[in-house]
Structures are given as structure tokens and as C-alpha cells.
Amino acid sequence: METVLAKNQHERFAMVQKLLPPKMCFNECKKKPPVVTTITMNIKRRYLRSSGTTNKMKLAILGLFLFVLYVNAKPQYPTGVGYYWRDFDGSFYPSDAYEYTPNGYIGQVHAFGALIPGHIDKTRGYIEFVYNEQPYSSNKELKILSTTDTTQFEWVRANSNNVRNFMSKKFFVRGGFDSLEAQKSIIGRTLESSRAGVIYFMRQPALLQYVEDKKALEANEYEVLAIH
């Protein structure tokens, strides 16, 4: 009898449990985002990823464009063997010294705190140069321009107003540096007598300064030594 009553009570308890609302489960019954929200988030993620890829491609294309523009704007590096400055005291001339004109060489002297290019006459063995609009000569602290391939040199026709326009097209041979004025110089020669001298191309006007007949002279039109 007790067993039957227990069984009945158990069945009634089960029926009551079915009628009651389900128990709350904080671990398993948390609210999940709607399907639409999930799809929207996925679309945003894909869009951001695709936008990032597109931006990278745009930056890569822009970088390539700027590189090509730079290469076309700048001259290519010289393909020859180059040039160098040998120590020179006037006692003998190196076999690889660059004779830019019959019995004429290009020298570089260290004087007045500057490196200054000028003309060396083979019959005299010293350099003639201009500094501060005055003529000078010296066989001390002197170098001579040398190379094993003279065919890589060329003389470019220019003048004091347009010489800077060639800087993006030609590689001018560096002549020296004036530390007092923080000025770099290049090497030029006159059109008539082919006399080498110095050009401070950042000056205005950029005149060729040279020595001839022991006088400091200037030329508005000249040729500039370049290497290719």
C-alpha cells in the first residue's frame, strides 16, 4: 500500500514539474546575438579586411609610381671605372693623370681651409687657382685628377644661369669644398683657351673662376666636367 502511494506521489510530482516554467540557467541560457547581428558583424569584418588589402595595394602602387618617377628624374650612376685624386708634388706626372688639354691637367689644392680645383701646366708643375677673387699658385698639399678610362669623361656646355639645370641630368665631377661658405664646387673650363677653374654652382650667378696670365678671371659661359 505504501509502495503504491509513493508511486502515485512521484507521478504527481513529475506532472507538477512539467507545468512549472523551466529553471533559469546562467551558464547555458545566456542570450545569444540575433542571426542578423552576427551576419552584419561578419560583413563588417570582411569589409575591413578587404579595405585593408585595398589600401595596401594603393600604397604599393603609389610607392612604385614614386620610385619610377625618381629613377627617371635622376641620372643613372656612372658605369665607368670612376676617377680619383693622386698626391702630386710636381716632380713627375702619374701615367693615369687626366690630361684634359695638351700639357694641361686638373689639380686640387688644400688652401685657406678649402679644397679648390684649378689648372696644372705640365711645364710648370704647380696649380693655379682662384680664391676670394684673387689668383694663387702652389705645389704644396696638391693632388692631381686621375683615371684609367678617360672616355668616361665629357665636357658639358653650360653657363652661369642654367648650370644648375644639368644637376638632375649629369654627374658633374666634384671639384672641392669651401668650408667657410659651406659651398661645394665643380670643375669647369673656358671655351676659348680650355683653362680649368672652379665653379661654385650654388652661387648666383655661378661663374667660372680661373687663372690665366697670372690674373684671376671669370667666365659666364663654359664647359663643365661630367662623368657617365
Topology (elements, then pairings):
Layout: H1 2-19, H2 35-73, E1 84-88, E2 99-101, E3 104-111, E4 114-121, E5 127-131, E6 134-138, E7 142-146, E8 153-159, E9 171-172, E10 174-178, E11 183-189, E12 196-199, E13 208-212, E14 215-219, E15 221-227
Antiparallel strand pairs: 1-7, 2-3, 3-4, 3-7, 4-5, 4-10, 5-6, 8-15, 9-15, 10-11, 11-12, 11-15, 12-13, 13-14
Percentage of helical residues? 25-40%
> Which regions contain 5 or more consecutive residues with pLDDT less than 50?
1-7, 23-36, 67-79
Radius of gyration: 42 Å
- From the spread of the alpha carbons, the general shape counts as elongated
Provide a descriptive summary of the structure in words.
By secondary structure, the protein is α+β, with helices and mostly antiparallel strands. It is built from 2 helices and 15 strands. The chain has helices at 2-19, 35-73; strands spanning 84-88, 99-101, 104-111, 114-121, 127-131, 134-138, 142-146, 153-159, 171-172, 174-178, 183-189, 196-199, 208-212, 215-219, 221-227. The protein has a 15-stranded antiparallel sheet that branches. β2 and β3 form a beta hairpin. Mean pLDDT is 79; it is low at 1-7, 23-36 and 67-79.
Question: Quick summary of this structure?
Answer:
By secondary structure, this protein is α+β, with helices and mostly antiparallel strands.
